[in-house]
Design brief:
By secondary structure, the chain is of the alpha+beta class. The protein is built from ten helices and 14 strands. It has a six-stranded mixed β-sheet with strand order 1-5-6-4-3-2, sandwiched between helices. Strands 7-10 form a two-stranded antiparallel ribbon. Strands 8-9 form a two-stranded antiparallel sheet. It is a single-pass membrane protein.
């Protein structure tokens, strides 16, 4: 059966024609281009209703089988959470593979942390904490509440998008994997390691054992980025390694020197120590020593209470 026949089964997910999306993006003009990745290009578009969208158009080289593409749409059209980017629809005309998402005007967390132009507002500490909590809740939903559970596999600061109110939404579930369903077998082997250097769970990298704890590791790296304003791999050195070495020598107190200078007036020592302890738990070498995402959410809520 063609995808058109099964389209109505995707609840709340629209089936767009190629023409719809051409019109929305001014024929995929370079003026509308907002992102380029391994899979293809992302364009900003405006539907005839006036709604702004992001159109993710796969290049031929990264096409999946129609069956896989269908599965992905079916899966993501069922996910609804305020901290996940919402899939609005798809297009498969002329053998295209396009996904249409809600548009996020404030781009990515990464853009804000490393903005070279000063016009980009440096996020204050309170906002950074709320972005950390929002993205943690999005991942908690994928791991614990989605049915079946989902492992994201590519958690990083450029996959955390910000809406007009700087609310965080986890994006780019393209690499994600369904978690294994039998409850005792929470890890499974994956032939091809997927993800981004600097964020990769060392256990997954070494043994190809993937679990929800792999996302927790990557999220721990994001937590470190949020408080330090440093990229995971900075001038050839790995920030996680630097931080672990610092703690080994000088305890958690030694980490105060890593805090982003723009945040110094807004943070308290107690809060920073708690935050770093949580980040360090998330980046433990062994998955079983890392917390689950729901525990990360609770800890972040406690840290935010200290702010009040």
């Amino acid at each position: 059966s063609s995808i058109g026949e099964i389209a109505p089964k995707f609840k709340g997910c629209k089936w767009f024609t190629l023409d719809d999306l051409r019109k929305a993006s001014d024929n995929f003009s370079s003026n509308h281009l907002i992102g380029v990745g391994g899979y293809g290009k992302v364009y900003k578009g405006q539907l005839h209703t006036g709604e702004l969208v992001a159109i993710k158009r796969a290049e031929k080289e990264s096409f999946q089988g129609l069956e896989e593409f269908r599965t992905e749409i079916e899966l993501f059209s069922r996910l609804h959470h305020k901290n996940l980017v919402n899939l609005i629809g798809f297009c498969t005309d002329d053998g295209q593979q396009m996904l249409v998402y809600e548009f996020m005007p404030n781009r990515t967390l990464r853009d804000h942390l490393y903005a070279s132009n000063t016009a980009e507002q440096a996020l204050n500490w309170k906002t950074r904490l709320s972005i950390a909590l929002g993205s943690a809740k999005g991942l908690e939903y994928l791991h614990e509440l989605a049915d079946p559970p989902i492992i994201h596999r590519d958690v990083k600061s450029s996959n955390i998008l910000l809406d007009e109110n700087l609310v965080a939404k986890v994006a780019d579930l393209g690499l994600s994997k369904l978690a294994p369903t039998c409850s005792d077998e929470k890890t499974y082997s994956s032939v091809q390691v997927k993800g981004t250097l600097g964020y990769l769970d060392p256990e997954y990298y070494a043994y190809h054992q993937l679990s929800a704890k792999s996302d927790v590791y990557s999220f721990g790296v994001v937590l470190i980025e949020i408080i330090t304003g440093k990229q995971p791999i900075d001038n050839g050195s790995f920030i996680v390694k630097e931080i672990k070495e610092s703690v080994a020598w000088g305890g958690v107190a030694s980490l105060l020197s890593f805090v982003d200078k723009r945040l110094l007036d807004e943070t308290t020592v107690e809060q920073v120590k708690k935050y770093f302890r949580l980040a360090l738990q998330c980046v433990e070498d062994s998955g079983q020593d890392r917390p689950k995402m729901n525990e990360v959410v609770k800890k972040l809520e406690e840290i935010i209470k200290l702010q009040e």
